[in-house]
Design goal:
It is built from eleven helices and seven strands. The protein is of the alpha/beta class. The protein starts with a helix and ends with a strand.
């Protein structure tokens, strides 16, 4: 039993990357997901927010096929190119395109932003470097993930001077932000929306909480691995993917408006029938087709 629990814990290591794929979810977007502990987990993945060594495409700096460019200001390029970033973080950059991500979602110095399920802090650090000392980054992780993998790398990262703008939040994803985290400019959920399904998150409550925390005109930034049309939430465990349509419908139901989408992480050649988890993807790591959606709270 102890061995099974350990293996299951490893299945959650998708937080800041593409973690291992958990077991199958029940069919249909509207169906309730199966309990996360009810089936045997897949192969282990690296700890949240850490690199286990890039796949060939990432190591060679290759852009995903079909990716398009985003105008990146020099200041944001400098954030990503900072000499004091770790090699482990840099290894993830080609598959993540952080400069394009920061630019597309309009992150600037002095902003108040949040990252949900920050894991070991790959994106949270980039946000902290961008908003600078006059801004703030609320970075949330839940108890389960902190206890099993994120606590050590996350705590170590928070010691870095560049992380001074970060406010650590240990909260559940259903209610991820405290009352003081209000009038935010942006909230990020990267490569994790699909995991909220098999973790049995109250996604409607989560999306409403994000809506409340944002200022009018504030951005909800969602990036995730694309599932095939018609698959809904049925492959959130087996293939680590979710159908884009499901995410759009659920987020818009909370009151958001889809303002823009980007294609810099699109990979038209991706058949979307393979496991996008880092340890399962092998040479394909960083090459999954990903949707990039910019939702906005109306009124700004």
């Amino acid at each position: 039993m102890r061995h099974r629990h350990l293996l299951f814990a490893l299945a959650l290591t998708s937080l800041a990357g593409c973690g291992a794929a958990p077991p199958s979810a029940p069919p249909g977007p509207a169906a309730a997901p199966a309990a996360a502990s009810s089936a045997a987990p897949p192969a282990a993945a690296p700890a949240p927010g850490e690199a286990s060594g890039p796949g060939p495409a990432e190591a060679n700096g290759a852009a995903p096929s079909g990716a398009t460019s985003v105008d990146v200001p020099a200041a944001l390029r400098a954030v990503v190119d900072a000499a004091d970033r770790t090699e482990a973080d840099r290894a993830l950059d080609p598959g993540r395109k952080p400069a394009e991500t920061l630019a597309f979602f309009g992150i600037q110095p002095g902003m108040k932003v949040a990252e949900l399920m920050a894991g070991g802090g790959y994106t949270a650090e980039l946000l902290a470097r961008t908003v600078g000392p006059t801004g703030v980054v609320y970075a949330q992780n839940n108890r389960f993930v902190l206890e099993r993998f994120a606590e050590k790398p996350w705590s170590e990262r928070l010691k870095k001077p560049v992380m001074k703008p970060v406010v650590r939040l240990d909260r559940e994803i259903d209610d991820p932000l405290p009352p003081e985290a209000r009038d935010l400019d942006a909230v990020f959920l990267i490569l994790f929306y699909h995991d909220t399904v098999w973790l049995e998150t109250d996604r409607a409550a989560m999306n409403r909480a994000i809506f409340r925390a944002l200022k009018p005109g504030g951005v909800f930034a969602v990036i995730d691995h694309s599932g095939r049309d018609g698959t809904g939430i049925t492959e959130v465990k087996t293939l680590h993917r979710i159908e884009e349509k499901v995410v759009r419908e659920e987020v818009e139901r909370a009151g958001f408006r889809l303002a823009a989408e980007a294609s810099f992480l699109r990979v038209p050649s991706d058949t979307r029938d393979w496991n996008a988890a880092p340890m399962a993807a092998g040479d394909k790591r960083g090459m999954s087709d990903r949707f990039v959606l910019k939702f906005v709270k109306p009124g700004g």
